[in-house]
Amino acid sequence: MVELLTRPADTVIRQATPGFSWIVDDSRRGAKQLAWRIVVELAGDLEPRWDSGQMTSSESIDVRYAGPPLSAGNSYRWKVMTWDAGGIASPWSEYQTFRTADVISAAHSLAPADRANNDFANRHALIAHEQAPVEAVRRDDGSWFFDFGRAAFGNLVIRWTDAPRAEIDIQLGEMLSAPARIEPRPPGSVRFQSHRIELTPDRNEHLPALTWSPPGWMREGFISVPRARGQVMPFRYAEIENPPPGFRPEMISRRWIAYPLDEQASQFASSRDDLDAIWEFCKYSIQATSFLGIYVDGDRERKPYEADTFIGQMCHYGIDREYSLARHSHEFLLQHSTWPLEWQPHSVLIAWEDYLHTGNARSLEACYDRLAEKTLIGLAREDGLIDSSRARQTPALLASLNVTEPLKTLIDWPPGERDGHQIGPVDAVANAFHYRSLVLMAKIATELERPDAAKLWTERAERVGERYQQVFFNPETGLYRDGEGRDHSSLHANLFPLLFGLVPQDFRPGVIEHVKGRGNLGSVYAAYHLLDALYQHGQSEYALAYLTSRSERSWHNMLAKGSTITMEAWDQTFKTNQDWNHAWGAAPAAMIPKRLVGVRPLEPGYRSILVDPQPGSLDRFDATVPTIRGPVQVVWRRSAEMAELGVTIPANCTAELRLPTDRAAEILETGRPLGESTDISLRGSSAGSTTIEISSGSYRFRFPVR
Description:
There is one protein chain. It is built from 14 helices and 32 strands. By secondary structure, the protein is of the alpha+beta class. The protein has 4 domains: 8-107, Immunoglobulins (Immunoglobulin-like); 128-258, Jelly Rolls, CATH 2.60.120; 267-596, Alpha/alpha barrel (Glycosyltransferase), CATH 1.50.10; 605-704, Maltose phosphorylase, domain 3 (Sandwich). Strands 9, 10, 11, 12, 15, 16, 17 and 18 form an 8-stranded antiparallel beta sheet that branches. A 7-stranded antiparallel beta sheet has the order 19-24-25-26-32-28-29. A hairpin with a 6-residue loop joins strand 24 (620-625) and strand 25 (632-638). The longest helix is centred in the middle third of the chain and has 22 residues, at 451-472. The two termini are 45 Å apart.
């Protein structure tokens, strides 16, 4: 990779000292890189622009260019070789080409804030896919119906050389009214368009002139489709009326656009077909909704929001080795922030996850001061809690956040999904996000070697945490109130302190039961955080039931209603103007690899990997989870008496593995007790879990189940 890009030749690199990353291709146990050598060449030169020579280092992520200055507007290629722990050199890698921009900078430059969306520097360009319909039906009246299998953002193409001069009518849509009939008046923002186009013999391709306009109240803020791509709309179905003689169905295709995706980078298959269907549904949703090269909230607004970006980021990490889209979206939003109050601290969450998954701190360094403001310390009272009263939202504070209108506490969206939460100026949900952002700023300051700042952030977080208990916890109910001066205890007022580590150990059982009992009263946005919190606290069976539910509030309900991309809300009844293409509804694309399979970074750039599977009652799963160092493979098998867990860790890193058994003495690895293996270190056992440390390579554990 160059600057986190697996296909850098498709874009331009703005960095004067780009970072190079590679996967150490060595499947042996304990495989570790001892040294590396990079050669960078300018096209046409006889001598390398930079030959690093052999550098003794295990670094394989974000190794910075250190040769003579790169020239702007030129094409370069680079290759790398490595030495293993025994001093044996690898072959040279294949060359990878990258191009520098016309203007390059020594400092990290934020993502372009151009809503026209034509500058794809430091992120991949969109890809156009050509797809034939999976079904073509000729009706009795001579018209045609086409089904492309799944919805995608694109246009219909009629490829007809020497076509007769004629006019035909085309309908495109996401929803059916009857078999082989598109719904011409779909509800909400479910899409339908009808166009009459003129066929002429002087064109090989004939496309309808698609249109898009934002909601009537929205005058600005939306992202445009890049000019070169032409307008697109989400559709699965097409109809052609009055086709002239000579028309054939093989002339029809759909040209749809999306951000590049390696569909083989992630895999998941289990003993439950319904869970597998949800995984594929959500995985495809992340690909399909990437049509603008930035995370947006769907077709209705085509606007980036911080919460949508956070969920899109985490889902994307779960399905592909791709990091530039999340960083672009994040840095764009720092310059064009949105109005929900809790969305501001989301920027800190996004920044931390970006660093954890990439090990690249340049964005953290460049955005540190902006992130500090995003904690909402400007709204803090003397006791540390934030107060969103209008008097505190001064023009200076709003300007520091790059917000153009007063902040409003959101809790959840749409409003009917708030479980009756009573919003107030000193709110439990808003302050939970504030607390979490303070904790993360302390971590960020530590990583950036700012110890004094880290100490101050830590002290502030501790003060907020202590005051949080005093103001929001109700000792009579054992639950958290919605806000200061409130008696109601919503799902959200308890979910977010549980997720962010604000609930003391003694209070957790009651809070967990409350969250489980009210878990179906939140939106698809809350579902991401609900699953995260429940898996975090060992509620794997409840989480599995939630993932596979067939209630009205479920992913299966979205599929049953006919959507092939996750919806903005669980059902049309909960949001009448929703669209059928919303990435923030795709939580399982993150939760299955991150929590059920259990693969997460323990250290930035996956220097150390956590594998903590929580299969619940699943008898089997096979999973591949992408990381910047290479794929992690996890295989789970369980019978009535025994369980097996297979794990493959990429080279040049270590892993902490949590086996779902506390009977450490009975665990075998490839037939031997743990103590007989030099590649495994036992760290300890607790209720239902044994923690071991392993190095790279493949392992297979077998142990009895209760």
